């Protein structure tokens, strides 16, 4: 499929999705949200893709939603606007294939929320994270009030949300918002290296691990442990489990087939 605002590159089982609206600092608009949804469909169905990297063109990852669009929203439209964005970002979070955000620059508002929806975030030293919606008379609407406290804790999350201040990649890593921070010219290489490490592992097991973490975060410990045990048990019929344990005992690399 051809995209207007996204660039898609697939190599070595890694799909790199580049948000390509640099003249607007990659601000999210209706077209981009539709294309993000479409590319998720494409990559979910592509058996040649095992991991996904999302990054931005130019000096921004995504500098938020398109404010010109919000400024003219009709009565009742803002909630619909939020639900659409939440739906797309939730699909990223629920992806059975690992999704890594390579945050190259400004990740503000919806851009920060996009990064939060990814499974892992690697930040450039030039990255800037923030949720400045209160400065516009709004609140984060694409999941920021829910995901950020779960990731870094209530107090630090509320500080970011209520001040609207930005933080750099180093501070994001200290808080746990970023998994790693690297120099700009090393960003995509670091993201690809992490994706390649993940791709050495059993794809069905990674999908089950993503499910266990996602569902378990909102469960009691007892319910989460039951879920973990059920998902653990569900792997006993997979060829990958047989291959992985056999390869370990035979002291050789496993050849996982995703079955």
Task: Write a brief caption for the model.
By secondary structure, this protein is α/β, with parallel strands linked by helices. The chain has eleven helices and ten strands. The strands form two sheets. The protein has a six-stranded mixed beta sheet with strand order 1-2-3-5-7-10, with helices on both faces.
Mean pLDDT: 95
**How does the major sheet shape up?**
6 strands, mixed
Distinct helical segment count: 11
Low-confidence stretches: none
Tell me the fraction of residues in β-strands, as a range: 15-25%
User: Strand tally, please?
Assistant: 10
Strand/helix succession: EEHEEHHEEHEEHHEHEHHHH
Tell me the structural class: alpha/beta
Described by its quaternary structure, the protein is single chain
Distance N terminus to C terminus?
27 Å
| Overall 3D shape | globular
Portion of residues within helices: 40-55%
Widest beta sheet: strand line-up: 1-2-3-5-7-10
Rg, rounded, reads: 19 Å
């Amino acid at each position: 499929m051809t995209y207007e605002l996204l660039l898609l590159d697939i190599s070595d089982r890694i799909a790199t999705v580049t948000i390509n609206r640099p003249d607007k600092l990659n601000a999210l608009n209706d077209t981009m949200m539709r294309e993000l949804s479409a590319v998720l469909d494409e990559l979910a169905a592509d058996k040649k893709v095992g991991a996904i990297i999302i990054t931005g063109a130019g000096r921004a990852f995504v500098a938020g939603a398109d404010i010109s669009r919000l400024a003219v929203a009709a009565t009742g439209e803002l909630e619909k606007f939020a639900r659409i964005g939440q739906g797309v970002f939730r699909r990223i979070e629920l992806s059975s294939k690992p999704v890594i955000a390579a945050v190259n620059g400004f990740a503000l508002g919806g851009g920060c929320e996009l990064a939060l929806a990814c499974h892992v975030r690697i930040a450039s030293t030039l990255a800037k994270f923030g949720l400045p919606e209160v400065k516009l008379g709004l609140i984060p609407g694409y999941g920021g009030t829910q995901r950020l406290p779960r990731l870094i804790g209530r107090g630090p999350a509320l500080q970011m949300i209520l001040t609207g201040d930005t933080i750099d990649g180093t501070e994001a890593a200290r808080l746990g918002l970023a998994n790693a921070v690297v120099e700009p010219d090393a960003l995509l290489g670091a993201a690809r290296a992490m994706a390649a490490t993940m791709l050495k592992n059993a794809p069905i097991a990674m999908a089950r691990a993503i499910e266990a973490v996602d569902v378990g975060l909102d469960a009691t410990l007892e319910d989460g442990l039951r879920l973990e045990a059920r998902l653990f048990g569900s792997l006993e019929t997979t060829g990958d489990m047989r291959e992985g344990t056999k390869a370990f005992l035979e002291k050789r690399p496993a050849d996982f087939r995703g079955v």
